[in-house]
Design brief:
alpha/beta; six-stranded parallel sheet; three-stranded antiparallel sheet; 13 helices; 43% helix; 14% strand; globular; disordered C terminus
Amino acid sequence: MKIALEITPNLEPLFGTRDENLKLMEDSLGVRIDLRSDAVQVQGPEEAVGRVRRVFADFEALRRAGVHPHNGELNAMLKLVVADPAVTLKGLADASKQRSAVGAAGVKRTVQPRSLNQSKYVDAIEQYDMVFGVGPAGTGKTYLAVAMAVAAMNAKKVSRIVLVRPAVEAGERLGFLPGSLQEKVDPYLRPLYDALYDLCEPEKVDKMLEKNIIEVAPLAFMRGRTLNDAFIIMDEAQNTTTEQMKMFLTRMGNNSKAVITGDITQIDLPNPKKSGLVEAINLLEGVEGIRFCHFEDVDIVRHTLVQRIIRAYEQKNLQQELPLGLGEPIPIEGGHAARGHSTADAAHSVVGRRHANKPQ
């Protein structure tokens, strides 16, 4: 099937930097998109061509409504659109408005999931009262959770936000810290403050912190409390003990939500096998009312080097776990031998399948 789409004013942002958005649609949907002086020609399977047509129509509708996503945000939205036929550009923009409570005083930006797993995570937070976000650094686990908490409070679904982190040192000894108790633990909680100040105007954040509408506290401060009408987030949950995790999970009161985030590859406890997050995954997976969302390195939204670094470390760990080295015969009883996977196979399993080449 072949169609011609009209080139409307200010359509160029849809193409992306060096036509990266057009290439994304070509590679993912199996179509060919050619730019002509008077039209955009799209050729391919009927269903795929129809989806491209819908993208162009939605972009034009958003532009007329005054919605102009920047290129990084638009590219992330298009990745979700091409991955799921049920997802549309307009639907994502509308959901982003609702979640971010656009127009609420003090809100600096809208927040849009940038991968399929991030989209599932955000949907889970909306639908479930307790959600675990587990995966590597840079996948947006904490940032999206804080964004959902801010949106929930702006929509008056909760009356306060409680942000919690275990105060565990990441390998180094910080020694005695001067100042009040809050000043001693603030360095551990800085990532949570960073997310708040990035999402909301600093004046609004400071005012809500002063009034205790937003509370940022170490995990130890949670013991004995019941948190009603609150959106509760625990970050770096891999550094909780079994007892601490159980204590935190039982703090939920009426009309409350809890989001627990962590990365089980970065456990800073003296005994990593005693991580409360690891045990919670084993014990609570499948429990009604609780949702687990798992992220992968493809979900990383920080600098592109972060994704490559994490893949390199994962591959090293995989090599260390395989007995007798990669590709070497493994002796077993009876004189037979089993051959391990090759280095290339191991790397393929970690890095994942590459995208198909652009259609010619």
